[in-house]
């Protein structure tokens, strides 16, 4: 359980997240993921990183139960800062990051996938932000990198999800494959990327980030301010109180 790193072939490293049962990460998990991505991307022998997850789904966001056990705001602050660091680590990784997404990609999962350089998804993958059902706000910055503006807004306000095939039609998912073929498909793309000159790949990553129309660090941090306001006003506690009860819709995670 936790975050692990392996090098499956020359130039390609795989970072795997494993927090059963649904990959809802605790505060420490977000920081561990950020550290793993930064260290792996900084390895001069690595030219592409594949971000993957074990189990039922790619990521269900933060561990809301950890927040519920906290009488103060320590877990909330930790989760927000941890997500901020993990999302930034993916975006700022020295080399391209390929996200291999299966099952649910919710809340914080959108932050990770949205900041990746490419996404390969299984046929059963779904993407969404159940934030309004979890007493939170955030990661619209990253969802807007996956779908057009008005669809992003509709998905955000309704907490509904989009399928991997829908995102493939929008051009944000590189390839959709059966779940059994997800790892091999992600490695195939990573292998093609890693065949390029490592120095040039690093220059290319820096250049592409430099021409992005949106500063993802700044815009996500702006969103997080409203998450704090929701918590200070008490509305977040009222909404989160339904989490795990019969009133809950059955999805887990937030960003």
UniProtKB/TrEMBL annotation:
The keyword Lyase applies. The keyword Lipid metabolism applies. GO terms for biological process: fatty acid beta-oxidation. It holds the Pfam family ECH_1. Gene3D superfamilies: 2-enoyl-CoA Hydratase, Chain A, domain 1. GO terms for molecular function: lyase activity. Transmembrane segments: none annotated. Keywords: Lipid metabolism, Lyase. InterPro entries: ClpP/crotonase-like_dom_sf (IPR029045), Enoyl-CoA_hydra/iso (IPR001753). SUPFAM superfamilies: ClpP/crotonase (SSF52096). It comes from the Bacteria. Belongs to the enoyl-CoA hydratase/isomerase family. This is Enoyl-CoA hydratase. It comes from Streptomyces melanosporofaciens.
């Amino acid at each position: 359980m936790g975050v692990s790193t392996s090098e499956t072939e020359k130039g390609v490293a795989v970072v795997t997240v494993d927090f059963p049962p649904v990959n809802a990460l605790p505060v420490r998990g977000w920081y561990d993921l950020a550290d793993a991505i930064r260290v792996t991307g900084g390895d001069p022998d690595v030219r592409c990183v594949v971000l993957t997850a074990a189990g039922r789904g790619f990521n269900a966001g933060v561990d809301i139960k950890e927040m519920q056990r906290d009488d103060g705001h320590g877990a909330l602050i930790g989760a927000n800062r941890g997500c901020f660091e993990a999302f930034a680590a993916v975006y700022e990784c020295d080399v391209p990051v390929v996200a291999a997404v299966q099952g649910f990609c919710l809340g914080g999962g959108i932050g990770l996938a949205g900041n990746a350089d490419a996404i390969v998804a299984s046929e059963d993958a779904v993407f969404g932000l159940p934030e309004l059902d979890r007493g939170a706000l955030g990661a619209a910055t990253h969802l807007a990198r996956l779908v057009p503006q008005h669809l992003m807004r509709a998905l955000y306000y309704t907490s509904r999800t989009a399928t991997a095939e829908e995102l493939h039609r929008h051009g944000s998912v590189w390839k959709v494959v059966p779940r059994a073929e997800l790892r091999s498909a992600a490695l195939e793309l990573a292998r093609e990327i890693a065949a390029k000159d490592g120095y040039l790949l690093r220059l290319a990553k820096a250049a592409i980030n430099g021409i992005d129309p949106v500063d993802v660090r700044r815009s996500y941090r702006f969103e997080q301010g409203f998450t704090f306001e929701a918590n200070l006003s008490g509305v977040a506690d009222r909404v989160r109180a339904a989490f795990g009860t019969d009133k809950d819709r059955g999805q887990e995670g937030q960003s």
